[in-house]
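Researcher: Structure for this, please.
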Amino acid sequence: MASWGVTPKIMRCNGGTGFSKQPEEEDRFSMLMDDILISILGRLDLRTAARMSVLSTWWRRLPWLLPELNIDVKDFLPIPRPNPIEAMDMDKAMASLTKATRSFLVNRHGESSSISTLHLKIYLVNDSLCEAGPLIGDAVESGLLKDLDLAILYKRDIWACSEEGMLQRGQPIDGFFSDYPVVLHCLTRLSLYTVRFEKLDMHHVLFDCCKQLKHLALSHCDVGAHSLFKIDAPNSKLLVLELTYCRFEILELVCLPKLEKLRCNTWVSRHAPLAFILVPSLGELELSCDAIHGQSEFKLSELLQGTTCIHTLTLGFKGENVSCGSFPPSIHILFPFFVPFLYSLCCDNFQKYIVHMFMHDKESTYIYLIFSSM
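Model: Predicted structure, token format:
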């Protein structure tokens, strides 16, 4: 059996009863075209892809030809993965990740191919952003890197982070965007976990600085508990906005002209969590939340005011109570007016009624979302 670092040899039939060795010939994998081999490597995590490169001298160059890189700090944690993840494990994982990133962005072994997208998931420990900033910045300036998908993870359960801890996490992120503006030229996707921007200008950081941003995902983020946050970004290229456990009292979308999809999962607002002013491209809306004590009811039809072209609406009530009723005769036309192009409505625990309701033109209805503890 071939060992690591030794090229496996093919055993070919010689027409008789046995097999003959042909040491001059390459292994079967290496007979495949580069495009196929790169496609295979692209489906593996980075550590495995790097290990595969020692199979032969031909494979050694292939990881540096990958057009898309996925460097995830969790792939550098010990196996089995510790639970909880200790600070020492995070530090070692980030050190290994930085080394791998430098290898792919700096030590290209003479290869001239560019990287279309770098998916980078990191922990916010020590000077992790400061170490990544120059590497990414140089890659952008040299034309090596086209798009960056950056996720700044949290090490444990998001609820384990105090409000002071959330504030502290916001400062290095703000500093990173200020110190390495060239990185923002290629930042097309950003995922943030457990960050509070109460003393920082969240709007400036996310929408004025990140001008190329197309996908923004915020999990357990806010500008202060139960605060109003307005997004007024007429020049934004944002297409997708995802909010999970964010503690905005109301998120008001004043102007996001290119936004196509919005997901809002589990809000803490006591009122309707969203308000739409100018979102002319919004076609997909997903709302999902379970009951929170003291939460007020609101009409879906009123929440959707300001939208004009929603075609897919997904509602998830997570087993809580929902009340539905028909429009009074005097305002039968209101709901179709708010969502005139609606053709798909998915709703767990209530799907049959909702589908039936929208398949008959004469049955105009509104929906009360009443979140009450069972």
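Researcher: Any notable elements?
Model: The longest strand covers residues 115-123. Residues 87-105 form the longest helix (19 residues).
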